[in-house]
From TrEMBL:
<keyword id="KW-0808">Transferase</keyword>
<keyword id="KW-0949">S-adenosyl-L-methionine</keyword>
<dbReference type="GO" id="GO:0032259">
    <property type="term" value="P:methylation"/>
</dbReference>
<comment type="pathway">
    <text>Cofactor biosynthesis; adenosylcobalamin biosynthesis; cob(II)yrinate a,c-diamide from sirohydrochlorin (anaerobic route): step 6/10.</text>
</comment>
<dbReference type="InterPro" id="IPR002748">
    <property type="entry name" value="CbiD"/>
</dbReference>
<dbReference type="Pfam" id="PF01888">
    <property type="entry name" value="CbiD"/>
</dbReference>
<keyword id="KW-0489">Methyltransferase</keyword>
<dbReference type="InterPro" id="IPR036074">
    <property type="entry name" value="CbiD_sf"/>
</dbReference>
<keyword id="KW-0169">Cobalamin biosynthesis</keyword>
<comment type="similarity">
    <text>Belongs to the CbiD family.</text>
</comment>
<protein>
    <recommendedName>
        <fullName>Cobalt-precorrin-5B C(1)-methyltransferase</fullName>
        <ecNumber>2.1.1.195</ecNumber>
    </recommendedName>
</protein>
<dbReference type="GO" id="GO:0019251">
    <property type="term" value="P:anaerobic cobalamin biosynthetic process"/>
</dbReference>
<dbReference type="GO" id="GO:0043780">
    <property type="term" value="F:cobalt-precorrin-5B C1-methyltransferase activity"/>
</dbReference>
Amino acid sequence: MNSGEIRSGYTLPVFACAAAIAALHWLHNKQDMTSVDVNLIHPAETVEIPIEQVSGIAHGALAITRSDPGDNLDLTRNTPIWALVELRENQEQAIVIQGGEGIGKLRATKEAAIYSYAQQLIQENLTQLLQPGEKITVTIILPEGRQLAERTSNAAFGVVEGLSLLGTSGIAQPLSAPGQLEAFREELQAKSHFDCLVFCIGENGLDLATQMGIDSDRLVKTANWLGPLLVEAAVQQIKAILLFGYHGKLIKLAGGIFHTHHHLADGRREILTAYAANGGLPTQVLQTLFTSSTTEAALKYLREVDAQEGSNWVNTVYTAIAHSIDRRAQEYIFKHSTRQLQVGSVLFDRDRQIIVKSEIGSTLLAHLC
């Protein structure tokens, strides 16, 4: 693949960290900086990030940079990212990281949605810059975060009032660019010595899979390229693949859609309604499912029906969907490669709670954990 075809950028945590470095530098030297070096940690490289503005403010300093995700369909492109760094004396930790305006909050705990990689990145880069005995509070602010969040699926994963600083790497790969498929294939080929791999469409799946104890070396981020990568796994003679993902994405496979970007195909409510109808659900319930705003809303409604009527529709419908995902994935692989590959699926909801595990998925998950 010609590396000039697509351009990688950096994830939001990198720009938040860069702004914090610039603000801390101003506190120490009272000098503007036009750029700073950030150690990405993952991958192990140092990159230069431009700084737009930096100034002293009250008992601290504020620095601003702008997001550059590379050649990717990313709504955070060019959004400003602020970091306010304030000197503190009466706090236990040397560095306290908190979310300001535009940083989302976890619905369940009200904590700022600043995940482990962002925390590690800021802690490690700033710790080495602290003066002896110095303690600081770092507040990350996304002025446009609340507005941008309305155009994302963050709420479906329990993040409200803003964007999350989510990611496991500092590099923002252009996942939507066709050329990126070749990079995904190369990553998959490098892991072909494993008998079983786990396909995760996005960061939420990667994060949850890691929390559940799955070896991170077995995880493959697929973005929306599930079909081609399933075929590539078969070509590489991998024995089994566990599809581990949000039900609002994986449900498309039950309808025969193997590139899951919504710009190409959707049909999620239609697929859910079709499987519900085949399962014998009443007409009134089917009509409500079909007109639901999202698959998450439809799932919530089904759970309410089960609670009120003592039925078991969620299990009935989603078990059928998971079984179909496995079957259709295997059929897709055989059609495009004439090879056989065992496929299992695990679907979770917006709160990262498992909805259903297919029979094969349950077996594979037990093996992986």
